[in-house]
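Batch job 17 of 40 flagged for manual review because the log was empty.
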Amino acid sequence: MIFKDKLHKDFYAENILKTNSVHDPYRQALFYTLGLTRETRKYIHGLYDFREKGIDFDGLSKAWQTSGTMRVTRLAFNLYNNFNGQIYDEGTGTQAAIDGSGHYTPEDIFCDGLMPYFFEAVKLRYPENCYEISKGDSSAALFDGESAANAADGWDEEYED
């Protein structure tokens, strides 16, 4: 795992231990992502409720948020529970927008110099889907154990531009 700096690494380790999340990919991805910026580290208690053990959606509307910290927060929340700016309103039985921006697409989130770290967060969240693929290796497991050489949809050839 790569860290942006020592502050990022220390923040991640502290919060993983604090929440007993050593084997929890949801919180690992959350704290890894929220540890990327000084602001999200500083305001962690406005983004994660340690007593309730969940994210605090009100953190999306705080005055300290910038376009960069919003990208970090949106990705962290999305990796934690697939949050996309809307929550289920039990009263109406519909989805209610709490972050009406709609800025949850890869284009909106990944347009940042933090992209290599964002990919690390994705790898933390989905470890079962992360594996090394080396050029010419047709034995890489794809599609639930189906080898690349036996893939029926033609994904068995590597493409070079």
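Reviewer: the log was empty due to a logging misconfiguration, but the result itself is present. The radius of gyration is 18 Å. Unflagging and moving on to job 18.
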